[in-house]
Structure prediction request, 271 residues.
Amino acid sequence: MKTEIITEIRKKTMDKNPLIHCITNPISINQCANGVLGVGARPMMAEHPLEVAEITRAADALVLNIANITDARMQSIKISAKTAQNNNIPFIIDAVGISGSQLRRDFINGFLKEFSPTAIKGNYSEIYALYNEQYISAGVDADSALKLENINEVAVLLAHKYNTIILASGKTDIVTDGKTIVHIKNGVPQLAQITGTGCLLGMLCGCYLSVDRSIYSIVTACAVLGICGQLSQTEKGNGTFFVNLMDNLSTLKDEQLEQLLKVEVKNIEEF
Prediction:
């Protein structure tokens, strides 16, 4: 894959300075907002049911996240999704924790019967739970027993079922629209040692979807976060790593991206 595709999406985002409506959880809201700012977009972290339709209508993209879910946020997510869908605004939903919570699983299943998101995000366990209703795992972390080849197949099936882009995040990020499948092999284990980096990845997806609705917007988000993670590695501890990560999101150069990018693109027939 040519890095020019990613650098062009990044440039378009910085030039446009898009408004991203983010409905997310209080655990990660600060780093999500700062991450959106870091890549050249503008965050709006509004979630009250009486205002979200107005906010979404003015936005260039919408990001929905069901971590730490509440009744009010479930209501707001549906209102904003309807608004985005009716106004042709791209939106992504992050299926956080559905593999370990029946409430969240039921919500996502109902949501996907009613709405057609531009993209669906989850880690390997969450994407597998979306495919297999009997699958259960504890917490919000991915199940290490799930292998790349299993999730490849599941992601493609889900992309066809929901006519959307699927992002399964993990050691190797998988992105597919059902026709093409992309593996992004950037990132470091330290990204999993600070809370909210998965939520942050969803926010970056929204930023890049605002200027490009192809799978390559999602690939760009995975590559940018993974490479910034690599550049941020430190032995000083997770606090320093987090500060480094925020710095690198706002200062990443095209030359660094080109040097470190690890991406494989294949047609589905090749699997």
